[in-house]
Amino acid sequence: MNLYAIKFGESSLFAKYIYRDIKSDEKMQISWSYYLAQYNNKTILFDVGFRDQIIAEKWGITLINIEDEINHLTNLNQIDVIFITHSHFDHIDNLDLFRDSLIIISYDEYMNVINNGKPSTRERLLKENVITVKNEFLFDNKFKFKVIGGHSIGSSVIYFEENDKSYVITGDECYNCSNLIGNRPIGVYSNTEKNESFISDALQNEYIPLPCHDLNLFNKYKKISSNIVQII
Ligand SMILES: [Zn+2]
């Protein structure tokens, strides 16, 4: 398997959103990113990012043009499978770009898009090739998609093993590796107990966290190009 982290933006964010135990108004620099895997002759995305300049400006995000960098890895028109961790804009809004991929999403996040989502995302989810998950779903005997519901109503994570190590793609159940490693729950939640128990369980089982907003990841792992690192 190859697994890459792809950074499509950077900004600062209130540290109290990232860590529930912070009360001050200090800010932290974060990445906006998602993951791409090549496994068993399939290309898989874990979240898809967004591209709306107006939303980017509202959040103070500098969007990065990563198309050329991704084209060196894969053809974005041929993504077989997409896991969606939750339906916040930065994780799902580009979904309309992927017409033929199989989409795996929790039932609650799916319903949230159907009822309140952006029209283009809703339209895409109403097409075929969508699996909705109420608890957990094992894909290709490798990736265990599990609904946690700590960050948002149906927020989910993906567990897998590779080379005798255990990994978890956390969505925003962790913003940062140190949420998991330091056992520090997130500051933006719909159910903080569910977030707490996800974090303590993953810590106890020594999962390596792969979050979507940790800028340090891009120094920690092997650089493939300016905004892409190879995890596996
Ligand atoms: Zn996010």
TrEMBL record:
It holds the Pfam family Lactamase_B. Keywords: Hydrolase, Metal-binding, Zinc. It catalyses: 3',5'-cyclic CMP + H2O = CMP + H(+); 3',5'-cyclic UMP + H2O = UMP + H(+). GO terms for molecular function: hydrolase activity; metal ion binding. Its cofactor is Zn(2+). It comes from the Bacteria. Residues 30-213 form the Metallo-beta-lactamase domain. PANTHER family: 102 KBASES UNSTABLE REGION: FROM 1 TO 119443, QUORUM-QUENCHING LACTONASE YTNP-RELATED-RELATED. Belongs to the metallo-beta-lactamase superfamily. Counteracts the endogenous Pycsar antiviral defense system. Phosphodiesterase that enables metal-dependent hydrolysis of host cyclic nucleotide Pycsar defense signals such as cCMP and cUMP. This is Metallo-beta-lactamase domain-containing protein. The lineage of its organism: Bacteria, Bacillati, Bacillota, Bacilli, Bacillales.
